[in-house]
Amino acid sequence: MEFSILYNVFLHHCDIMGLFKRNKDDDNKTKCDTCGTELHDPEKLKRHMKKAHGNVPAKKPNADGDGGLW
């Protein structure tokens, strides 16, 4: 019994200090930070971020040395 009371007090103090706390704004966010696209569902935003901004190939200079990319 005493252990559970101390544990609850510990969790309460951690909550007050902001430890072990997730950012709740990220769960409800619907606007992309990268391109500004507004989506109607946070799950859609996660899929958009993975598909549109997740796998960007690295830019390489031309082998000719003329400064062109790709």
Helix content: 40-55%
Structural class: mainly alpha
In percent, how much strand structure appears in the residues?
A: under 5%
Largest sheet: none
Stretches where pLDDT is under 50 for at least 5 consecutive residues are none
Average per-residue pLDDT, rounded, comes to 77
Strand elements, count: 0
Q: Helix and strand string, N-terminal first?
A: HHH
Number of helices: 3
What gyration radius follows from the Cα positions, in whole Å? 23 Å
Rounded to the nearest angstrom, the distance between the terminal CA atoms is 67 Å
- Specify the overall morphology: elongated
Give a structural overview.
This protein has 70 residues and is mostly helical. It has a domain at 28-54. The protein has three helices and no strands. It has helices at residues 2-17, 24-28, 42-53.
Give a nutshell description of this structure.
This protein has 70 residues and is mostly helical. The chain has helices at 2-17, 24-28, 42-53.
Short descriptors:
mainly alpha
Topology diagram in text:
Blueprint: H1 2-17, H2 24-28, H3 42-53
